[in-house]
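User: Let's play a game. I give you a shape written as tokens, and you guess the letters that built it. Ready? Here's round one.
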């Protein structure tokens, strides 16, 4: 059975992933992972995260995948014994010096996509070092992945392969980019990318008679999406690829022999995690239940389009990505409107303190460390025991909701972008 592996940048995302069916979750260890700007987890947090994962029968992997210097390795030498003691199942690493250290401490060694593993022979070499799993490079096609897994099977190899199936794509090979460091001194390879590639860039071309540029590719034309700006200059997002989404290709991916499907997004919101995990869980389970009658559900993509995305593509799986993206393309925005004051279990009613108007029919999202991320359409509201159709900001309002909420959970109103 293929593993569905979900990201978590904080405890709300962790709970969201688990409640929606993740088989495993990966989180970042403070100071040692590729998402410095996510909340990340301390050693004590990892102990708590592991306990939560075990309640759901899920595994926990810890990212230690930045470029490592001596001081970083020496810190991890002190921390790895605690990772095992506190219940982590494995570590995702990009420095081969950590392989032996992980194994010595009883942890599975998973080699990060940062290592840029692109072939069968690299996997066999990693297996000899004791590596349990390698995350294959994003630049591989599905046919190349199938060839690799077939060779592994023929050689009776036990190393597992993991691939990204959803989330952000990077302009650099397996994320090894120097653009942020060159412009701002903030290294992507140390987890501190400011993502200048996502900005809108001005494109200019100056003629030079000494240029000897010859296009030797098979491409007959070169084009970027270019827009005219307010100052009459022309700009483009040609550095920024669309996000990857493979929801339409679950059968092909499972049949390719991949061991773990990875969703990218430790720096993204809990509702993104909840939605992505839920959608892929449904698709995987449906295929496993009756592969002969499996049918893609278009509603899955509709759900994925509701949360943060830069538009979707299939990455390098089927062809070279050719589309570029602007910023968030999700169909809804989240407006912070309330917090949960109380929840009454017997009658399944939540009391909200609202600072924006709320009405019957509004769709809201509730998020909290134990609640995770859930959505709900308002069907019943009361103030002081009297039914109402709408409530003004500043009120305390009761809503009927079956899912248990917790005090201080965050509440957002989902507003369609096309209504703004």
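Assistant: Ready! My guess for every position:
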């Amino acid at each position: 059975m293929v593993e569905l592996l979900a990201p978590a940048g904080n405890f709300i995302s962790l709970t969201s992933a688990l409640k929606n069916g993740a088989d495993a979750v990966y989180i970042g260890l403070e100071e040692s992972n590729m998402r410095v700007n996510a909340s990340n987890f301390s050693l004590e947090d990892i102990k708590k995260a592991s306990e939560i994962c075990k309640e759901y029968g899920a595994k926990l992997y810890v990212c230690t995948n930045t470029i490592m210097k001596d001081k970083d390795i020496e810190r991890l030498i002190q921390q790895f014994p605690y990772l095992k003691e506190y219940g982590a199942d494995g570590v995702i690493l990009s420095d081969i010096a950590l392989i032996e250290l992980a194994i010595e401490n009883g942890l599975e060694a998973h080699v990060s996509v940062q290592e840029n593993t692109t072939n069968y022979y690299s996997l066999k070499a990693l297996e000899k070092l004791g590596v349990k799993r390698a995350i294959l490079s994003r630049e591989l096609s599905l046919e190349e992945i199938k060839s690799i897994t077939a060779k592994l099977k023929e050689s009776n190899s036990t190393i597992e392969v993991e691939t990204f199936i959803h989330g952000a794509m990077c302009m650099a090979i397996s994320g090894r980019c120097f653009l942020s460091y060159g412009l701002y001194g903030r290294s992507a390879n140390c987890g501190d990318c400011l993502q200048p590639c996502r900005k809108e860039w001005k494109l200019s071309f100056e003629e030079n008679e000494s240029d000897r540029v010859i296009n030797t590719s098979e491409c007959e034309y070169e084009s970027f999406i270019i827009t005219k700006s307010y100052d009459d200059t022309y700009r483009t997002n040609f550095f920024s690829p669309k996000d990857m989404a493979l929801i339409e290709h679950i059968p092909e991916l499972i049949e390719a022999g991949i061991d773990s499907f990875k969703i990218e997004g430790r720096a993204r919101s809990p509702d993104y995690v909840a939605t992505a995990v839920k959608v892929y869980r449904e698709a995987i389970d449906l295929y496993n239940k009756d592969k002969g009658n499996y049918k893609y559900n278009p509603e899955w993509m509709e759900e994925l389009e509701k949360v943060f995305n830069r538009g979707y593509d299939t990455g390098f799986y089927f062809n070279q990505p050719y589309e570029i993206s602007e910023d968030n393309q999700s169909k809804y925005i989240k407006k912070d409107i309330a917090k949960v004051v109380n929840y009454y279990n017997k009658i399944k009613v939540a009391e909200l303190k609202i600072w924006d108007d709320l009405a019957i029919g509004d769709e809201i999202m509730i998020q909290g460390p134990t609640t995770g991320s859930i959505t709900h359409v308002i069907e019943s509201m009361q103030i002081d025991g009297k039914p109402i159709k709408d409530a003004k900001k500043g009120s305390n309002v009761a809503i009927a909701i079956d899912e248990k909420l917790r005090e201080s959970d965050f509440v957002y109103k989902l507003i369609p972008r096309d209504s703004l």
